[in-house]
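Input.
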Amino acid sequence: YPYVAAYQLTCLWPLDPSSTATNTSSTVVVFLRETYLNGTLLLQPDSSPFTAPTLSLPLHCFSSKTQLVCDSISTIITMSNSEHKIITGHAGYVLEDVPHLSHYIPHLTTYPNPLQDNPSYSVVKQHAVDVEDTVAHKIVVHKNSPRGTHFRRAGPRQKVYFGSEDVHASIVTCGGLCPGVNTLIREVVCGLYHMYGVQQVQGIEGGYRGFYSRNIIPLTPKAVNDIHKRGGTILGTSQGEGSNDTSKIVDSIQDRGINQVYILGGDGTQRGASVIFEEIRRRGLKVSVVGIPESVDNDIPVIDKSFGFDTAVEEAQRAINAAHVEAESTENGIGVVKLMGRNSGFISMYATLASRDVDCCLIPESPFYLEGPGGLFEFIRKRLTENGHMVIVIAEGAGQELISETLSATNMKDASGNKLLQDVGLWLSQKIKDHFTESQKMAITLKYIDPTYMIRAVPSIASDNVYCTLLAQSAVHGAMAGYTGFAVGAINGKHAYIPFHLINEDEKKVVITDRMWARLLSSTNQPSFLNPIDITNKTAPTQHHTSKGKALSPH
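Output.
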């Protein structure tokens, strides 16, 4: 099973292999294809990820830790933006490393970590994390699984790259609201003050634009003492990635003498953070850029879950409970609840599983159709006949392909570049009313509840507060240790430092062939709205639309 990885190796080569002249030494990025032969790892040159090599030389490549040797005509590609992938240990995992200030700024001064003298850490058996510690991406390994990926473990290091009195930190919040943002602001401030003795922390108002167009807010432990009890963000926010203003943002960072930037926001915000980091690295500035990803939809890849997700699921219970009360109080009562979930249905799925009052959950990852055998209307009639009422939970991104009215709005996007969605909750409610009252001549009572923004505009619950505390402290430890251009998150319950490009490359989605979705189907006893072949192929059934926009059965 081939695996192509980039290795940063120290390479020695003579211009003429038969020459006795002194070898030339350089650090380069070599792309090697990994294959196994009788249990032995073979590394062969590979240039497939790129269209044209920039240099070809006879190589003798060495790595002191693994004694990797490549003696052949190899293709070398040098890339300014490539991050390190390092093979480590006999198990041969791939370390998705993160940048460090020392990678582009030579001769940096280091200092003993102040935590070693901190009374709070005196009871800790080992206050510093070993720099070689890693966190495995996957802890369940199947036969013939590809090489495992690891990440640097988060936590305090023995040495730090900033003196406490020299740190000038800033915190900015961007994108949509999410429960726990204020908790993160509080814990970053308190972590810097109480763990590392930092006295200069400021908040940037109004998102990325605040770097150059708004005032800054001095942040102290006293000033942020109670903010975790409030929803929203005390710093304000704005939509947009900030990549168009990169030069002005970095100019402001440089002019203000900021050397640690903590960026809280979703996928668009983290893409902007990556661009800001690249500009800072290009200028050679000693500035650590740390991202703390947020998404109430829980669609951030790699990490276990996004902060605020538990709170959103908990708050959604109130809407589902209200819909259930309304539905069961009338004959043929139907409650429809629309929840957040543009492309990922995690909130709807977990809220449904937690409630146990939901009869049908519809998410973007699992297409459905309305009419015909096995369709939604047939299931609604069956459930009303059996129980006299039912509750439907639908994610905001579900069924968009069924709404014929969206044709005029397909190209419209919001400030963050997200496609504007039609209100699928209102659309579905009207379709149900039309079908049963007009076509079926069946009296129903339908109540539609839309708590979309209510579930995110609330203070975080206890579990999210604890999670945010750990994320904030991990971010502070990483910045003080000199790491930069990374995001923090929990992976298999352990906190790690993750390269920006992995956070930004995709969205995490519900996998409808996994057990969790099967558990939901078992809980609601709803049909999958897919036949077995469709499920295997992970594709939706072929849907034929009438002139009224109704999807007909594929059977």
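The chain has three domains: 3-97, 114-120+152-306+458-503, 309-455+525-552.
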